[in-house]
Design brief:
This protein is mostly helical and 69 residues long. The protein has a single domain, classed as lambda repressor-like DNA-binding domains (434 Repressor (Amino-terminal Domain), Orthogonal Bundle), CATH 1.10.260. It has helices at residues 2-18, 23-30, 34-41, 49-58. Helix 2 packs across helix 3.
């Protein structure tokens, strides 16, 4: 399961960078602590479905896209 969190975190990071968005901006849009965004992207934190939904909305993507390869 840890590998899955790491992959999702890497995907969030890539999508965020594609949108030319900083971690701070993503934190602001999602109302999630910036440190939490850092931990999610590095696979150190296991985000809830609610958190992943907020991130997907902020990135203007469907939730399922966070799990695509």
């Amino acid at each position: 399961m840890i590998g899955t969190y790491k992959k999702v975190g890497e995907r969030i990071k890539r999508l965020r960078k594609e949108k030319d968005m900083t971690q701070e901006k993503l934190a602001e849009l999602t109302k999630i602590e910036a440190r939490s965004i850092v931990d999610i992207e590095s696979g150190k934190r296991n985000p809830t479905l609610k958190t992943l939904t907020k991130i997907a909305r902020a990135l203007e993507i469907e939730l399922a896209q966070l799990f695509e390869k």
